[in-house]
Amino acid sequence: MTGYGVLKSNWYNTAIIKPEGNVSPKKKRLARAPKTRKPRRKQSWRDAGGDWDDLSYDQQERVASPAERERRRQVVQESERAWLGTPQEEYRSDDDATGLLGVVTSVHGNLYIVELSGEPVECHIRESLKDQETGFVNPVAVGDRVVVTEDGAGGFAIEELLERDSILTRPSSFKGYLRQIVAANVDQLLIVTSWQEPAFWPELVDRYLVTADVHELDPVICVTKGDLIEDADEFETALAPYHDLDYPVVVTSTETGDGMDELGERLTGKSTVLSGLSGTGKSSLLNTLKPGLGLRVGEISTWRGRDQGRHTTTRATLLRIDEETTVVDTPGIREWGLSGLTRPELWHFFPEIEQAAGACKFTDCRHFSEPNCAVVSATEGGEIDGERYYSYTVIYESLPESIATW
Description:
Low-confidence stretches: 1-38, 41-64, 75-89, 298-312
Radius of gyration: 22 Å
Structural class: alpha/beta
Distance between the termini: 26 Å
Strand order of the largest sheet: 13-12-11-14-18-17
């Protein structure tokens, strides 16, 4: 697929350098049977709560107290013996710089919390990292593996950023030509959506599925609040397109415990980033999986007559479930933009549309109203789900025709 290859070479591999031969082929999912078309549910996720903003790096550095400096010395001594529970030697980079290996667990303005040997320490980053032109608004993100050194003033500094295995990005809210890294070094994207309170919204799910495919992350759809399902037929009809395309779907309820074991199995041994609307129950899921986390859980408000969540997570945070399992909890969003993707490339990320598009009369068909469009015909015939096709059209209109190079 030429468009797909152009996408990867244009922007993705400029941010992530992967070993050759380690890129898995794009998974093909084909529709198995005609779907029942249904009327669209008139809900909107675009204003569902406040959005989390780009990170700010303008805060002043803080002078550590004697007690903090003593604790940091203890952490350094422990880190010389182990890193995240595994034997560790002092790290030496190609330019002979030495330091301690750590993982960024959260970012607070200009302050980075890094886990060293299971202990969180506060760090700032060297100016050399800030000055690099990366195409991102945040030079260091949650999940990044970093080299940390003592800064000579009783504190720690992030000296070096190690090569990333993967990233999840979105367009910057304030600088549209740049991207914001939501999380780094994750394996899969857990798309958290509730059936009610707030209502299930397919377009947002489809945006996340495209995002996962663009970033080569395994997607898992997690439907929360399964105990609120009243019409089983309506529920099955709404989820049928995703089952037909072989997307993993887990239906959970923290009230009854249904689906929690299956969800835990899908998370075990992986690094997973959670994303979804406010109020869908991300924090409740994590509290149920590991009660000791003690994450705050919000209530659903009815502001302006809409069911929407109140923010309980205010920044992306890496949490450790066990020695082999981590999750990145992210704040709820009101919209999810797609970074690095253009209109001509979008159809490659809808497997059923990609399959049908081969029969279109024109190679540059947009799959809207062009003559002899096989995608439109397949949608009208029920071979492509109407809700999925609607998501394609809405997402298409939100994308640029091309990506500017600077």
